[in-house]
């Protein structure tokens, strides 16, 4: 049994529709419930169809009264796309950890030539004093067997920083993903987990 923490912790997941944010948030919430935390998850905000901006908030602790996270209050941000990472970077609290997929998905104004996609987003985020782990989750997911498992690679990165046994995460993945993809998703999770747990990444 995992001892329940007394203070509430906050995790923000951001990206665009079609990146598996809903599935990742569901797995995360199931893991936290299994670890006997009180958990509140916001409804998905934004346009969850492919290409639309999406965010969801997960809060856990001994007792949680609201699912909403204020600016500068998230211990962890899991960003599935670079522009969305920059957009939500002010929500990370001082000393928090930011995990960002290096994938770029151009929004409609950029595709129409009415705006430009920002360059050097990782430098812009680090320039705010943020502890950023930039991960090419798409390529790592392909190594696991499917690019669609990039969301689980990122979840593995997050899991390595949390005090919950890897087996609890495996169980939640098995419950949530299609049976034929369980092995691929477990491999993807392990790749992310092992990447973040290396000594080179210091929290």
TrEMBL record:
Keyword Amino-acid biosynthesis part of the UniProt annotation: no
Domain Pyruvate/ketoisovalerate oxidoreductase catalytic residues, every copy: 17-194
InterPro entries: IorB_Oxidoreductase (IPR052198), Pyrv/ketoisovalerate_OxRed_cat (IPR019752), Pyrv_flavodox_OxRed_cen (IPR002869)
One protein family per Pfam: POR
E.C. numbers: 1.2.7.8
SUPFAM superfamilies registered for this protein in UniProt: Pyruvate-ferredoxin oxidoreductase, PFOR, domain III
Transmembrane stretches, start-end: none
Single Gene Ontology MF annotation: indolepyruvate ferredoxin oxidoreductase activity
Signal peptide (UniProt feature, chain positions): none
Keywords in alphabetical order: Oxidoreductase, Pyruvate
Protein name (record): Indolepyruvate oxidoreductase subunit beta
Organism placement in taxonomy: Bacteria, Bacillati, Actinomycetota, Candidatus Aquicultoria, Candidatus Aquicultorales
């Amino acid at each position: 049994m995992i001892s329940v923490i007394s203070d509430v912790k906050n995790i923000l997941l951001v990206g665009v529709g079609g990146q598996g944010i809903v599935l990742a948030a569901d797995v995360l919430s199931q893991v936290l419930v299994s670890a006997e935390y009180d958990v509140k998850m916001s409804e998905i905000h934004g346009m969850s169809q492919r290409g639309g901006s999406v965010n969801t908030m997960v809060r856990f602790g001994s007792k949680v009264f609201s699912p909403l996270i204020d600016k500068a209050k998230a211990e962890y941000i899991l960003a599935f796309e670079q522009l969305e990472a920059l957009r939500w970077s002010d929500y990370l609290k001082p000393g928090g950890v930011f995990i960002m997929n290096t994938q770029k998905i151009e929004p409609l104004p950029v595709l129409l030539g009415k705006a430009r996609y920002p360059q050097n987003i990782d430098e812009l985020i680090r320039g705010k004093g943020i502890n950023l782990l930039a991960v090419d989750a798409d390529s790592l997911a392909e190594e696991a067997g499917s690019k669609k498992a990039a969301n689980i690679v990122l979840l593995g990165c997050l899991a390595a920083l949390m005090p919950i046994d890897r087996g609890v995460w495996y169980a939640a993945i098995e419950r949530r993903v299609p049976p034929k993809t369980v092995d691929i998703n477990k491999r993807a999770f392990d790749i992310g987990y092992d990447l973040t747990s290396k000594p080179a990444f210091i929290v």
